[in-house]
Amino acid sequence: MRSKTFRMTEGPLGRNILLFSLPLVFSNLLQILFNMADVAVAGRFAGALALGAVGSTSTLVMLYTGFLIGVGSGVNVLVARFCGARDEKNTRETVHTSALLCFSVGLAVLGISQVLTRPLLVLLGTKPDLLEGAVLYLRIYLLGMPALAVFNFGNAVFSAVGDTKKPLLFLTASGILNILLNLLFVIVFRMSVAGVALASIIAQYLSASLIVASLLRAKGIHALRLKHLRIHRDKAVRILGLGIPAGCQNAIFYVANLFVQAGLNTFDTVTVTGSAAAANADGLVYDVMAAFYTACSSFMSQNYGAGKRERILKSYFISLGYSFAAGAILGGLLVLFGRQFLSLFATDTAVIEAGMLRLTVMGCSYCVSAFMDASIAASRGIGKSLWPTVIVIMGSCVFRVLWVYTVFAYFGTIQSLYLLYVFSWSITALAEALYFAYSYRKRVRHMEPPQSPAEVTEANGA
Q: Would you say the pTM of this structure is higher than 0.70?
């Protein structure tokens, strides 16, 4: 299979970032469609209780998958940097270390999540009539975590070398299979929540198998070879140094959202179900915007590795502009056509109206998050991951918990709960932008352009 790759260190940045990001947009959308297809089929063909059971697990699903995606971002940054430096040895060692590391992390997440499934759902205050279905769905769905970790590894490698089309093709195949199996298991075999979970994990293992097979057939410096599989300690430390803070950042976001879910669970079942249906829009919008964050860190990291500092800052501003526009356009469409969107997941008029309350607030807020996440991606692109994570923990996570116990506790309305997102994004965005500006001046602005791959490697601390 031939697929176009982008030279991130050459050519017009605006055009290349857009063309690089578009396949990522569709790839990210297909990943979130795994869970969306589950919710849609459960709601339309298995009833409101199945919809509520599957929907009530969304925060925990994103908690675990967000952590794995964050670990993959560490792979992306390091591979991109060595590719930009045209350093074959370090690229090869990073790829093979990452393969084993990501699979091991996926297994660890699987084991931990299985133990915590019921206690966390109970802690969240999941409605008694939804609890058993939610536990069953989540325990089956989580069996796909090793496959998700492996796919994110492959996706990170391909994105780092400028090939975003192969992951899209693989996800298209697995996404179609997921939808077909959903319909088969739920409508024909009457498996309800167990059926939609089983369909998702089968599709995830297919996408992981396809991306690994493609890396095994690859000819470039990013190719995967079984004989080279081993963990190089120095690469593992650097991958985890970038990936674990990013993964923890994503996970802690959702830990904070567990408190939001607990606040939501104080309302009636109709409100909870409507919010679960509307929350599907979050994944769609976030994942479209996230494609530009991946482009931001990939382009910045490659140009940082190549010593082309004039392209580093431009990559940040262009990616920020694209992600802001995507959030504003998609948010506006959801406000205008929210009822049609919600009808994909629910047929009850009261549930749809409850969902519209969330869509209206969130649709006007998504674009604000671009300033936060693009700045985080930019910091990672130049090798800074720890402090952006600390800032997110304080500005978004701790702030959200405080909001639940102060502002929401005072007003007690569903609108006051939803508004915490835009306020937390605004505060965190300001701090993240200031940190990136400081890091850029310290690390990049006065950087001497490396003259050879060896000097690039030394400059990057390999």
A: yes
